[in-house]
Design a protein that fits this description.
globular
Length: about 300
Amino acid sequence: MTAVLERTTRTTPIPRAAALGIVLAALATVVWSGSFVTSRALHDSVPPVQQAFWRWLVALVAVAPFGARQAWRQRKAIRRHGGFVLLASLLGVAVYNTLVNQAGLTTPAANMGMIMAASPVLMAVSERVGGVRLGARRVVGLLTACGGVVFLVGGGAGLSPGDLWMIAAACCFGSYSALLRRRPAELGGGAFLFTTFLFGTALLLPAQAVSLTVQGGFTPTPGTVLPLLYVGVASSAVAFFAWNKAIALVGAARAGAVYHLQPVCVALLSWAVLGERVGPAQVLCMALILGGVVLGAAA
């Protein structure tokens, strides 16, 4: 009976829970926006794989005080659902962030954020395939926001290699977010977070060894260490916890509508921190994206 009530609560959230889910999705989105800027800022000083490895190692240390004990208590459940946890670790931790860092080598942070805004479309499609009814208003919101992304990419000088890496990252993150909706109820949030960070870091170890051998390490300075601490603690531990909870409360499609705010935040941050130009086309795209977010999140 309890399991039925929990499932009902997760699929048809009451207004207060829905509002909390939207707030948590917005928090994760704003914090993640900074990670695109840091990835771009570190592109010439820390290799992509090493950025990813140190990010998740820092994140693992950050969540260990509350996640490790919970993971140990739920170790039997983790073993039962080992395949699910491993797939989530691969998509959301090891592969996704490495692709983002690779994209940061050749494409501006603003483009990175705007291309990533297409990932909620995949989240919505996955939920629809799973039997969740999206509603006309949410579909219109998603299409409006996605139209802003398409206009930005199509109105530029064509796709760069970094843009292609970001498209792959968007597909990866969309798949991860859709997968979260199927997280077994017996896996607690802290245990799931700690375990995926642990598995993801372990999956990156071979690539980290190759990167150190071929590219060498980086010089620890405030300009490299502080951004890695930010993405490890804020963009990983805090933001992933908020995002996972948001999806549990409102679902991937509605959280994905809020995620469309990310390109607006990234564009503003990249302009303020990196000096990247924001032109009229980007402003128009932001207006479309914001309009889509309002429609999609309120549906």
